[in-house]
Amino acid sequence: MPVFRASAALAVAALASLVLTSCASRSPLQCATVDHRPVAEVVFGRVSADAPGVSEVEFAKFMREEVNPRFPDGLTVVDAQDLWPSPAGAAIHGPSKTVMIVLRGTDDEMTKLDAMRAAYTRRYRQKSVLVMNSTGCA
Predict the structure, then answer these.
(1) Dist CA 43 CA 49 (whole Å)
(2) Which residues pair with 99 in a beta bridge?
(3) CA distances from residue 55 to 45, 81, 88, 126 in whole angstroms, order as listed
(4) What are the two backbone dihedrals, phi and then psi, of residue 17, each rounded to the nearest 5 degrees?
(5) 36-137 CATH fold
(6) What does the pLDDT average to over 100-124?
(7) CA atoms within 13 A of residue 95's CA, in its CB half-sphere
(8) Over pLDDT 90: what percentage of the chain?
(9) CA 56 → CA 33, 45, 47, 59, distances in Å?
(10) Which of 24, 44, 78, 133 is the most buried (most CB within 10 A)?
(11) pLDDT tens track for 52-71
(12) Which residue has the higher pLDDT, 98 or 18?
């Protein structure tokens, strides 16, 4: 039995090494017929522990007034569900919206994202708005 365990452990270690090596040797994202572009995913929570919720109508108004003027080339809005810990220890669940924006790569886009985030937190008394930046094929 000890020989089997040693062989199995060696096989698992070899497999893990192979997987990790193949992941590490992959080249960065390759775009076949399109360009690499920066992408921002912005997550707007619609509930808060100490503020009323943000309705669909209010969120649509925020999009018209704050987001669309800053990013007129188009974007995608997805309904999502948040889960985060509250200071009291219980988890808070609630609806959110994720806005995905393919950026142009200009210097002022981070300023626009920050202004949009600040406007939302101020208007709806949110503690934060999550902004995730990555690169994609567009």
Answers:
(1) 17
(2) 42, 77
(3) 11, 14, 25, 14
(4) -65, -40
(5) Alpha-Beta Plaits (3.30.70)
(6) 95
(7) 11
(8) 51
(9) 37, 12, 12, 5
(10) 44
(11) 789 999 999 999 999 999 99
(12) 98
Residue type, 12: V
Distance CA 69, CA 94 (A): 27
The alpha-carbon radius of gyration of the chain (Å, integer) is 22
Reduce the DSSP state of residue 53 to 3 states and report it.
Answer: coil
Give the residue extent of every domain in the chain. 36-137
Tell me which residue has tokens 């076949």. Answer: 32
Q: Please give the structure tokens belonging to residue 130.
A: 């999550």
118's CB contacts (< 8 A; 6+ apart) are none
pLDDT at res. 9: 42
Check residue 26 and give its pLDDT.
Answer: 43
The Cα–Cα gap between 20 and 12 comes to 12
- Both tokens of 33, joined, read 């017929």
Amino acid, res. 7: S
